[in-house]
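SEVERITY: medium
COMPONENT: batch folding queue
REPORTER: lab tech (J.R.)

DESCRIPTION
The queue accepted two submissions in a row. Attaching both inputs and their returned structure tokens so the on-call engineer can compare them side by side.

ATTACHMENT 1
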Amino acid sequence: MAANQKIPTEEGASGFDGEFMLRDGRRMAYAEIGAADGAPAIYCHGFPASRLEARLVEAAARQIGVRLIAPDRPGYGRSDWHAERTILDWPDDVVQLADRLGLERFHVLGVSGGGPYALALAHRLPEQVRGLSIVCGLGQVCLPEALDPMHWPARLGFGTAESAPWVNRLVFGGVVGRLMQVRPEIALKMLTVGVTPPDRRVLSQPDIHAIVCESLREGLREGTRGALLDMALYARPWPFDPVGLQLPVSLWHGDSDATVPLCHTRMLAQSLPQATVHIVPGEGHFSLPIERAGEILAGLIRLEAKRS
């Protein structure tokens, strides 16, 4: 099965929504944006979101020469639900996507909640991942030192995801969940509790606000169970040890990030043997990956030369 749809773009750019059937019969949806003949990079979207999130950095991808390939994780957007999945199942899906697109090797970019999934790709596919960048990445929220500094909605969601999953099902699986589908700006407000001025400035821009809301709407198009499962997976210890990653990793974080505290990146850096940390003054959770997209993508592509 394949259902493909072109996205209007500037001449020379790629703009493509596609889907195909995985070996186990599930559908996987993905978007391609940026430079059609550029360096391929798998984009791991945040939480909750979808492949459409990658459009936030489309202009930078074209300029730098990056072909961003952004798949929907299972249960998000147009990718089918997978009840038994774990974070380490993600590389199996991505390998099939890479095979379909003829990619032997690729870079990986993980943003926010996409960070653990990006790390899983590097862990399982060390020969195929050229380099890895994680931007404002979510850390191991099963650890009190990572969870405690977060705002109360995150502490509630992650803190009860394993011990009392009914709480999240009650809050997000009923009326609130359906309302978030219809009005994604409500989900955005929940994600931006305590938002700092850099993020407020970026999210007030109509084009950016529209992309973020559309990504949220698409991510929740089939309901909230994909996000609920993600929340439970985040709340567990990661099923791999980052210490074993022997490839260059760039970690980016803004010092004004109120959504994922800076301590998450600091803790991750301590366990990655080839990590380079970029702490950017005056940038927040949303402003950093959007306003510094050019630097981030250019740095990601340079990682290949650093490794070879």
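ATTACHMENT 2
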Amino acid sequence: MKKYLNLDLSDLQKIGGEYTASEIAGQPDLWVSIFNKIESEQNVISDFLTKTLAKTKKIILTGAGTSAYIAFSQEGAIQRKTKITTVSISTTHLVSHPADYFDSDVPTLLVSYARSGNSPESVAAVELADQLSDNVSHLFITCNKDGELANKKTKGDSFVFLLPEESNDKSLAMTGSYSGMLLSGLILFNIDNLNKQKGIVDTLNKYGNKILTDYVSLISDIAKKPFKRAVFLGSGPLFGTAIESHLKLQELTDGEVLCKNESFLGFRHGPKAVVDESTLVVYYFSNNEYVYKYEKDLVNSMSKGKSAMCQVGISETDNNDFTLDYNFSLSDTKTISEEYLTVCDILFGQILGFYKSMHSGFQPDTPSKSGAIARVVEGVIIYPLK
């Protein structure tokens, strides 16, 4: 009998969690498949990006909901690599205020992330970019070959990178699609150095399997705790991980657990007031020594004020600077740069959300009892821009 997240497939089917559990568990292998696909398409991808980036003055990374959070984890790394101003702006901002972001005089590359490619805002953002920008190119990173974005005709140059079919999650919560598109973007903008990227993907595969092998039972134990609030903290690219973890836990419990995200430095500027004896606090630690100094200070400051029910740390290497209730480490040595940690660290947030959903009596594949949340957003009217 197949097992996912330490649960038999038959039991997962009974509780309505088969897809979510198998899609979370399948991510380390998915990351390898994504690398192999990019490697097989290297020449055509490289040709498009070389031509496009040579004329680009601004890169906008976009998506809706979970897909938008990918951009928060990538913008710094892509800007450092390309030396082009790179910003993350959700499609939900682009659609309501397009003139604030699209400039007819600035050659722009719009990078669109989308699981289905059918969200109304995702399609509208592309059309508004074409309408308002005289020189705009498009890079579509999507999981659905039949989606509107994968088949979209644009005014300027465009390229579609289609992830392997297994990335197109069947569950409501985005899991493999999230980490898969996140990894894809990081590799695509480093297409000129695939040999190094292969070593990074192999490390991510190892780290992901360590979480799935060594830590699932402990994460299940954390999920059994009666916390009603959860706070996720991350710096730089890991801020995107904190945001996505917030959403995963909140949507998988149908809002029963109220969640918050923040940067380590930002947390003391008011948001720390949310912490009380019913709160779980999760720290996604950077492996950048300069960044970590600020993170360590924040953790040490948590002794002042109300105490959290439980504090959890996730880091690449062992952390002996303070004692938390749970400390999860992935390696004995620092091996990859912090933006790549976002790909594997999200497994903690996904597994926590899955188990909290299951322990709370929800069906992880379809946790929204009222139907208020759907796999593809519904009820959005797109109005013409005059």
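NOTES FROM REPORTER
The first helix runs from residue 9 to 15.
No errors were logged for either attachment.
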